[in-house]
Amino acid sequence: QVQLVESGGGSVQPGGSLRLSCAASGFTLDSYAIDWLRQAPGKKQEGVSCISGSGGSTKYADSVKGRFTISRDSAKNTAYLQMNSLKPEDTGVYFCVLKFSCGADAVLQWGKGTTVSVSS
């Protein structure tokens, strides 16, 4: 069964850190781009970060630059989103999605999401 499974979400105080994981099963992540999207309450879905299939190219939303780092591990067939200096506005459900490239509109596969809550 082809699927993406996110994990690592939780509740943290402002300034804290979390590392989200996106584990693929039923297929190999290599050659596919992984895009992290987030859905905050009452807001439009936002693209947070993307990493190319080779891992050689990464993109970040301006709101997370310098705080979040995206990476991938081929041996573990998993992508990661390291989130540091978290802010309340980072609260939301984070989804990893599979694409042919970071610039592509079409989503090949969605994860079910993991919830991040940042509050004092």
Structure notes:
By secondary structure, this protein is mostly beta strands. The protein contains no helices and eleven strands. The strands form two sheets. Strands 2, 4, 5, 6, 9, 10 and 11 form a seven-stranded mixed beta sheet that branches. A four-stranded antiparallel beta sheet has the order 1-3-8-7, with no helix packed on it. A hairpin with a 4-residue loop joins strand 7 and strand 8 (78-83).
What are the key terms here?
120 residues; mainly beta; 7-stranded mixed β-sheet; 4-stranded antiparallel β-sheet; 0% helix; globular
Would you kindly provide a brief summary of this structure?
The protein has strands at residues 3-7, 10-12, 18-25, 33-39, 46-51, 58-60, 68-73, 78-83, 92-99, 109-110, 114-118. It is an all-beta fold and 120 residues long.
Low-confidence stretches: none
β-strand number: 11
The share of residues in extended strands comes to over 45%
User: From the structure provided, what is the oligomeric state, counting identical versus distinct chains?
Assistant: single chain
* Mean pLDDT over the residues: 96
Classification by helices and strands: mainly beta
Q: Can you lay out the helices and strands and say which pair or pack?
A:
Layout: E1 3-7, E2 10-12, E3 18-25, E4 33-39, E5 46-51, E6 58-60, E7 68-73, E8 78-83, E9 92-99, E10 109-110, E11 114-118
Parallel strand pairs: 2-11
Antiparallel strand pairs: 1-3, 3-8, 4-5, 4-9, 5-6, 7-8, 9-10, 9-11
